[in-house]
Design a protein that fits this description.
Layout: H1 4-22, H2 25-32, H3 47-53, H4 56-79, H5 88-99, H6 112-122, H7 124-143, H8 148-165, H9 170-197
Helix pairs in contact: 1-4, 1-5, 2-4, 3-4, 4-5, 4-6, 5-9, 6-7, 6-9, 7-8, 8-9
């Protein structure tokens, strides 16, 4: 049985994670440029869609803001005394908030930037290395006509998978945990982009 105090900490961290994840940075930034991000490009409220269809600087702002959401949510969870695998519960809540924001009618983005923030908070060194590698791969992929964020994310979390299965101890568990989260993010992003290509998608809101 989970102790009462731990249950309260989990409940509060999940609530804070969801609310922080729900902050619609892409929507707010795009709106200042008179763009409805939900009817533009892929229809996803994320950094990649803003970068491609609103502008590079707005895209960078969204990327930074979404990373900050993940970092702050995890910092709050740590301040509440959570650690180990328990930290993954508010991490999931933060992603769910980004995917299904209470402030935008439960619409959102794929969550890759938010996952980067979560990774940076949980595994700082790996997160920094991953950010550099992922950004490099994403830029190269984007210039060759591929979807940069998917390729960049796949490269980073694929690397984390290899590191996780060849390591041991808590680091291995945390690496494999963020890899599992990345699979959910990837699946959500793929579904979202396919919907964005559907002629009826934007009309359904």
């Amino acid at each position: 049985m989970v102790p009462v105090l731990l249950s309260l900490k989990l409940a509060l961290s999940v609530l804070m994670g969801y609310l922080l994840g729900s902050i619609p940075v892409a929507v707010l930034v795009s709106r200042r440029r008179q763009v409805d991000i939900f009817t533009t490009g892929s229809g996803l409220a994320g950094a990649a869609n803003v970068f491609r269809n609103v502008g590079h600087f707005p895209g960078f702002l969204v990327f930074s803001g979404d990373i900050a959401k993940g970092v702050i949510a995890m910092a709050i969870a740590y301040q509440l005394g959570l650690g180990g695998v328990w930290i993954m519960i508010p991490a999931v809540a933060t992603l769910v908030g980004h995917w299904r924001s209470i402030f935008t009618g439960f619409r959102g983005g794929d969550g890759l930037s938010t996952l980067v923030g979560i990774t940076l908070a949980i595994l700082p060194l790996y997160g920094i290395i991953g950010l550099v590698i992922g950004s490099t791969v994403a830029i190269i992929a984007g210039r060759t006509g591929h979807h940069g964020s998917i390729w960049g994310g796949g490269a980073v979390y694929g690397m984390f998978l290899v590191l996780g299965v060849t390591s041991s101890g808590e680091n291995a568990a945390m690496l494999l945990s963020v890899v599992l989260l990345s699979l959910f993010v990837l699946a959500h992003g793929i579904v979202g982009h396919h919907r964005g290509l559907s002629p009826s998608y934007h009309g359904t809101g």
